[in-house]
């Protein structure tokens, strides 16, 4: 039968020669290979001490952004929730009062903002959908938890620290963010 | 000889032997402990990994952690098992593993407070026969363990293991006969002393060494002959029903066996406590006999460590035999080879004496 691709190789099945049947040369060859491997670079990374650098496009935990004066960017427009294919985001909007102008950048804000990290597939569509640069994805991932409830992240966990009242922590978070951007 | 020993028994002699026995048991247990560590480390390196490195610096406390884990595990004795034998099995495996160390000369004698203390527990004039006898006893550990578990798989594995050990003991003995024809003595100390003067036995008996080494691998149930514990294709081995430290004893006795076998191989073929390329008699004049004896012990230890590494090295290189291949190698290849080696040695000895 003619072969279809002309790439077929005929299997050679010659009886083994005496040296081959001794097996010892093959064993020594194999042992030389394993011995050489002892001195090769190890593939393992010592995890807690050493960390593998993330890819610049890594999509990790979400962060809710603030502007320079510490006001929340989010206007609870709901575009992220609409964009989310896993329906992990829920929010409730509220109207800003005159006394709250230092807290929220625009007239409407998110009174409640929750992301279920068990539903989230970290696709980054929320980040893309946001018109206010209010949500972005950092380079950390969700730590483990004992309960399902623990994976529903509310505003407390998501918001970036306030640059006015909590400057130090904000700098740390922002520093991380800038280092990430630099990597990109 | 025996009457001489009986006359010489006094308190100091007994104390000296007791200390020596304690020391050798401690050393072999510690070496076995760290062989498990070395096994995991070397296996990791050969597979481009790092190996245990969490417990203590470089993971050096890992064997302690492993042992503690085994001690704290629940001990299950199957309801239908023969309880006495079930407990006896691992104990026997461990005891036979340790017993062989008695006749191995760990060094020449050292002089303490004017007494010449031989670094050998018992210089029996049938040393090698004793080793063979004790090694054959090791089969009972496997058989009793497998049989008393009252589990079909354990029993089959035990029969498998026992027939493997018995088959390879034949080739092992035959390969040694050629060596014994050369040395003319069964005492391990005499064999070592002959090698110190006339060169190592490996030079005269390379084929005998190869056969002996392969048989040692089979006797220790090490890869490529570790069918008694082939967990992935043959459903584990004779220790299937064992848990906790009883399982630990079985696994541990394998490492003690490795240590003792390495010592036997080094003693028989690699000059024992002979320091290579050095004239011990001349050296003891300049350094003192005690220093040279300790150096000799170090030389023996280095040889043992090399063989331990070889055990591990082979394990992580070569796949397992199929059972028929194992029997084929033992009966159809090694025994005729050993017989041929024996005949050739005999002919050469006759021809040289002519």
Task: Explain what this protein looks like in three dimensions.
The complex is a heterodimer of chains A (184) and B (354). Chain A contains 6 helices and 5 strands; from the N terminus they run H-H-E-H-E-E-H-E-E-H-H. Helices cover 27% and strands 13% of the residues of chain A. Chain A has helices at 18-22, 24-37, 79-83, 125-129, 155-158, 167-183, and strands at residues 62-64, 89-95, 108-116, 135-137, 152-153. Chain A is elongated and about 95 Å long. With 184 residues, chain A is an alpha+beta fold. Chain A has a domain at 62-183: Alpha-Beta Plaits, CATH 3.30.70.3270. In chain A, the strands form 2 sheets. A 3-stranded antiparallel beta sheet of chain A has the order 2-3-5. A two-stranded antiparallel ribbon of chain A has the order 1-4. In chain B, strand 1 (110-112) and strand 2 (115-117) form a beta hairpin. Chain B contains 13 helices and 2 strands, in the order H-H-H-H-E-E-H-H-H-H-H-H-H-H-H. Helix content of chain B is 69%, strand content 2%. The relative contact order of chain B is 0.14. By secondary structure, chain B is mainly alpha-helical. The model of chain B has no long low-confidence stretch (mean pLDDT 86). Chain B has one domain. At the A-B interface, helix 2 of A face helix 2 of B.
Question: Which word captures the global form of chain A?
Answer: elongated
Helical residue percent band of chain A: 25-40%
Q: Quickly count the domains of chain B.
A: 1
Tell how many strands the DSSP assignment of chain A holds: 5
Distance between the termini of chain B: 33 Å
Greatest interface (CB-CB under 8 A), with counts per chain: A-B, 14 and 13 residues
CATH fold title of the domain at 62-183 in chain A = Alpha-Beta Plaits
- Percent helix range of chain B: 55-70%
Oligomer: heterodimer
CATH level 1 class label of the domain at 62-183 in chain A: Alpha Beta
What is the C-alpha radius of gyration of chain A, as a whole number of Å?
28 Å
């Amino acid at each position: 039968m003619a072969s279809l691709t002309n790439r077929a190789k005929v299997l050679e099945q010659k009886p083994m020669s005496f040296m081959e049947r001794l097996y010892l040369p093959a064993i020594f060859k194999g042992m030389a290979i394993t011995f050489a491997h002892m001195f090769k670079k190890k593939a393992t990374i010592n995890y807690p001490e050493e960390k593998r650098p993330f890819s610049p496009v890594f999509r990790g935990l979400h962060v809710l952004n603030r502007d320079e004066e510490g006001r929340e960017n989010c206007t609870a427009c709901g575009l992220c929730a609409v964009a989310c294919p896993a329906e992990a985001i829920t929010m409730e909007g509220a109207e800003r009062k005159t006394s709250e102008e230092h807290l929220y950048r625009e007239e409407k804000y998110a009174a409640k903002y929750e992301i279920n990290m068990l539903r989230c597939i970290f696709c980054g569509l929320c980040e893309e959908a946001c018109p206010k640069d209010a949500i972005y994805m950092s380079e950390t991932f969700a730590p483990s938890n004992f309960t399902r409830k623990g994976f529903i992240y509310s505003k407390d966990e998501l918001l970036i620290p306030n640059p006015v009242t909590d400057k130090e922590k904000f700098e740390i978070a922002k520093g991380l963010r800038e280092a990430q951007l630099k990597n990109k | 000889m025996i009457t001489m020993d009986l006359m010489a028994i006094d308190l100091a002699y007994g104390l000296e032997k007791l200390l020596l026995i304690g020391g050798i048991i401690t050393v072999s247990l510690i070496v076995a402990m760290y062989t498990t560590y070395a096994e995991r480390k070397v296996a990791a390196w050969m597979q481009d990994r790092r190996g245990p490195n969490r417990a203590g610096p470089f993971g050096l406390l890992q064997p302690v952690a492993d042992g503690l884990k085994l001690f704290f595990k629940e001990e299950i004795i199957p309801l239908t098992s023969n309880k006495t034998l079930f407990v006896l099995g691992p104990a026997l495996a461990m005891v036979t593993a340790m017993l062989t160390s008695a006749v191995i000369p760990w060094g020449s004698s050292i002089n303490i407070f004017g007494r010449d203390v031989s670094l050998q527990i018992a210089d029996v004039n049938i040393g090698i026969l004793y080793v063979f006898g004790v090694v054959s006893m090791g089969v009972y550990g496997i058989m009793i363990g497998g049989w008393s578990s009252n589990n079909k798989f354990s029993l089959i594995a035990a029969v498998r293991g026992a027939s493997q050990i018995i088959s390879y003991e034949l080739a092992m003995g035959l390969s040694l006969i050629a060596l014994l024809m050369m040395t003319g003595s069964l005492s391990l100390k005499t064999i070592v002393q002959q090698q110190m003067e006339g060169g190592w036995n490996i030079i005269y008996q390379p084929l005998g060494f190869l056969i002996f080494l392969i048989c040692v691998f089979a006797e220790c149930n090490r890869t490529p002959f570790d069918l008694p514990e082939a967990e992935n294709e043959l459903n584990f081995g004779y220790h299937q029903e064992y848990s906790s430290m009883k399982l630990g004893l079985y696994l541990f006795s394998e490492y003690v066996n490795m240590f003792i076998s390495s010592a036997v191989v080094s003693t028989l073929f690699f000059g024992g406590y002979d320091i290579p390329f050095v004239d011990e008699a001349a050296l003891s004049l300049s350094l003192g006999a005690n220093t040279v004896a300790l150096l000799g012990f170090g030389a023996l230890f280095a040889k043992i460590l090399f063989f331990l590494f070889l055990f591990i090295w082979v394990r992580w290189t070569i796949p397992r035999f199929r059972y028929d291949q194992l029997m084929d190698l033992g009966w159809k290849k090694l025994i005729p080879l050993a017989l041929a080696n024996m005949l050739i040695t005999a002919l050469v000895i006759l021809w040289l004496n002519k």
